[in-house]
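Case study 2.
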Amino acid sequence: MKNNRLIWYIVAFVVIVLIQVGIMNNLQFSGLVNPYFYILFILLLPVNIPHYLLLLLGFALGISIDIFTNTPGIHASATVFASFIRPFLFNSYNFDEKEKVLVPTLHNIGFKSFVRYALLMIIIHHFFLFFIEVFSFSGFLYTLIRAVLSSIFTFVVVLISQFLIFRK
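Prediction:
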């Protein structure tokens, strides 16, 4: 059973990176909306994953995107930051014990909990990503708008993926 789950995560990692660099990176609307679907991998890791492994996987995911997009560590820093915040986010939600051992999918934790969790993680990731990308507060409003619109679009794509992949 554990080997099947490990294989599933390896395949998911590769597929998500390929979707991001092959499709999502080519979807840009007016330079304001850039979907960063790859955050889905961090979202779907088990709740009880050791923190060091979560950080390492976040780094591996981000650096993979950085290699394909020729961005010097921007995505790696954003995914590591999101991975760092994730356990604190789960602790603040007070999930019951049954939910703590599960993979946090829409089906497993319910629509309301998934929306709160995924949307907050996506917003945290995107705000960090966009502000580290410009590394300045000049053009703050433009960067804020980009982060908000990209977060919304990414959330919609993540939500659609939940209905397509994890349906009952």
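The chain has one domain: 2-85+94-165.
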